[in-house]
Amino acid sequence: MRRTYVLTKAGSKARTSRRSGLPAHYRQILGLIRSAINADDIHPAMRPHSPQQVDGWLDELDTLGFISLMPNASWSDQSVGERWQGVIGQPLRPA
Known about the structure:
The chain has five helices and three strands, in the order βααβααβα. 21% of the residues are buried. It has helices spanning 9-16, 24-32, 39-42, 51-64, 78-88, and strands spanning 4-7, 37-38, 67-69. By secondary structure, it is mostly helical. The protein has a three-stranded antiparallel β-sheet. The protein has a single domain, classed as Outer Surface Protein A, domain 3 (Alpha-Beta Complex), CATH 3.90.930.
C-alpha cells in the first residue's frame, strides 16, 4: 500500500527553524515534503539510508506530529482536501 504524507503546521515550523533540535535526517525529510508526497518518492532522496530506515523515521515524524499520513482518498474528494487543509494550513496539491 502506498503511503502518502503531508507536512503539518508543526512540521513546517520545525523545517524552517534553525534551532529545532531535530537530527539532520529528520530535517532532510521535512525539507522534501512540500506538498503531499509518497514515501516511495522520499526513499531515493535519502540514499544511502535503507528504505526500511527511512520508513522508520517517517513513522517517528508522524508520531511526533511533524508529518501526517494521508488517508486513502481520491484527489477529487473535496471534503478530504478541506479536512487536511486544516492540518497543513494550505490547500492540498498532488505531488
